[in-house]
Design a protein that fits this description.
By secondary structure, the chain is of the alpha/beta class. The protein contains eleven helices and twelve strands. It has two domains: 17-79 and 224-279, Alpha-Beta Complex (Quinone Oxidoreductase, Chain A, domain 1); 82-218, NAD(P)-binding Rossmann-like Domain (Rossmann fold, 3-Layer(aba) Sandwich), CATH 3.40.50.720. It has helices at 29-32, 73-76, 79-92, 107-118, 131-139, 153-160, 176-184, 206-209, 224-235, 253-261, 274-279; strands spanning 17-19, 22-23, 43-44, 64-66, 99-103, 123-128, 144-147, 166-171, 186-194, 215-218, 245-248, 270-273. Strand 11 (245-248), helix 10 and strand 12 form a beta-alpha-beta unit. Helix 3 packs across helix 4 and helix 3 (79-92) crosses helix 9 (224-235). Bound molecules: zinc ion (ZN). The site of zinc ion (ZN) has 7 residues, from helix 1.
Length: 282
């Protein structure tokens, strides 16, 4: 922190903080029940309001969380990303979790692998088209990496579960094909959590959903509670973030986004602008 309004108390020059970027007025019934991620009057710092990729940004003090001493600012930059995966698990985990399939091994998928491991899953299968991401997934706790361009994802997961399907699918790719796979990979009564945003329309065979009592659930962003837990998990080293990060100069930002959008990136899934890192003297 470098500056604050006169009525702000409890912070000092140089305090290390991370901002929860979903800002609400806190008055609606969703906010009042702690579901601030569902508020209709929400705005996103870095989305509706400017702030992403800036050296300095104005943030409501109520949105600030202290960064523990043992976390670098580079690691803390991924709290927001992790909080989204934390929310997906916190909202949708019920009962004993034995088997998980994660579709897509970008940052959310790689966090989902680690959260599935923390939740005790014995089988954690991950599908992805980029080999380098699959290699990271195996290091972080995945028990089976499936190259989606070379293997049949549905057949492979069903083989791994004696034809039954998995308890939980985390759909972290946002494509029609992976959404359809999500429903095909579940055991009867299983839950598919759709984490990735993607505008592609997706035909789903409800003749396989209804009789098998599948649960199809969306998940969106995070709450303050998810932010707190994400910081704890990083600080306690229960979630590892360093293999997910590639640093690059800010002037290469456009190329980084274009590579990620075209799925040709060989870099780790999260790119941290080096300019921001330097400016924070991390
Ligand atoms: Zn609200």
């Amino acid at each position: 922190m470098s500056a604050w309004a006169d009525d702000v108390r409890g912070f000092e020059q140089g305090d290390r903080v991370v901002g929860q970027p979903l800002v609400t007025r806190g008055q609606c019934r969703f906010c009042r029940s702690g579901q601030t991620n569902l508020c209709a009057n929400v705005y996103l710092i870095g989305g509706e309001q400017p702030g992403g990729f800036a050296e300095r940004v104005a943030v409501p003090v109520s949105s600030l969380f202290r960064v523990p001493d043992n976390l670098s600012l580079k690691q803390a930059a991924l709290v927001e990303t992790l909080a989204t995966s934390v929310h997906a698990f916190e909202r949708n985990l019920t009962g004993i979790l034995r088997s998980v399939a994660v579709l897509g091994a970008g940052a959310q998928g790689l966090f989902a692998v680690q959260l599935a491991r923390l939740a005790g899953a014995k089988l954690i299968a991950v599908s992805e088209t980029l080999s380098n991401r699959l290699a990271i997934a195996l290091k972080l706790g995945a028990t089976r990496a499936i190259h989606a361009g070379q293997e049949n994802v549905v057949e492979t997961v069903l083989d791994l579960t004696d034809g039954e399907g998995v308890d939980l699918v985390i759909e972290a790719a946002g494509k029609a094909a992976t959404r359809q796979q999500a429903t095909q990979l579940l055991r009867p009564g299983g839950t598919a959590v759709f984490l990735a945003l993607g505008a592609e329309l997706t035909p789903i065979d409800f003749m396989s959903v209804v009789p098998r009592e599948l649960h199809l659930r969306g998940t969106h962003c995070y709450t303050d509670a998810d932010f707190c837990l994400a910081i704890e998990l990083l600080s306690d080293r229960e979630i590892i973030v360093d293999p997910l990060i590639t640093e690059m100069p800010l002037q290469n930002g456009l190329a980084a986004f274009e590579a990620l959008a075209s799925s040709i990136s060989r870099a780790a899934p999260c790119s941290i602008p080096k300019l921001i890192k330097d400016s924070l003297r991390d």
